[in-house]
Amino acid sequence: MPGHTEGPFRVLPGRNDDEWLLLDVTSADPVYVPRSAVPDVSVGNRIDGTLEWGGEEPTLVDATVESTTRFRFRRTDEPIFEAATSCFEAARATGDAMGSRVTYDTDRNPNGVLYTFAAQPGERDLFAEFEDGTKPLEPLVARAAENADPPFSVWVLDPDEPFVAVYIVLDPDGLLAQTMADTY
């Protein structure tokens, strides 16, 4: 193991309530650290810091929050919104497993980027893979950041549908983010 690993890292839920999963933004390498190492962060925040490898467990030093983007992971039986259904149906009609589209507010300003991923047969659980970092969200967030400034409000939804939706809401304090919070 190297003596240290420098961030940035994306904060994800740990295996239990006492830890965070830090996902290296560049390599997607996962590392678990105690929540006490960075108590004032939320899932989805992007932090900069250094992991020191002095023993079996790494120690996070000099951690600072770069972006307050939040990730919310929800398995839900609430009806999914029409944009997600139509995005999935358009992808399925062309034989694609993933669909994407930009959503707009009533003034025709972009307010989100929506992705749908077809459910996978067998043992694969895409929702869990997003939540545990096996399938990183970073490329989707980075793509959204090409045209809008973070922080974002990112919603990963596992509805009672044959797909998982990832919705990157561009304004975490806006009406769409509030609607998502009220619904899911």
Layout of secondary structure:
Layout: E1 4-6, E2 9-13, E3 19-24, E4 30-34, E5 46-52, E6 59-67, E7 70-75, H1 82-93, E8 98-104, E9 110-118, H2 126-131, H3 138-145, E10 153-158, E11 163-169, H4 175-183
Parallel strand pairs: 7-10
Antiparallel strand pairs: 1-5, 2-3, 2-5, 3-4, 5-6, 8-9, 9-11, 10-11
Pfam families: DUF6663
InterPro entries: DUF6663 (IPR046604)
Structure overview:
There is one protein chain. A hairpin with a 4-residue loop joins strand 10 and strand 11. The protein is globular and about 50 Å long. The chain has 184 residues and is of the alpha+beta class. The protein is built from 4 helices and 11 strands. It folds into 2 domains: 65 residues, Nucleic acid-binding proteins (OB fold (Dihydrolipoamide Acetyltransferase, E2P)), CATH 2.40.50.140; 113 residues, no CATH class.
Care to give the gist of this entry?
With 184 residues, the chain is an alpha+beta fold. Helix content is 19%, strand content 38%.
Give the termini separation: 41 Å
Average pLDDT rating: 95
Low-confidence stretches: none
Q: How would a textbook summarize the main sheet?
A: 6 strands, antiparallel
Number of strands: 11
| Helical proportion, percent range | 10-25%
Strand content: 35-45%
Which features would summarize this protein structure in a list?
alpha+beta, OB fold (Dihydrolipoamide Acetyltransferase, E2P), 2 domains, 5-stranded mixed β-sheet, 4 helices, DUF6663
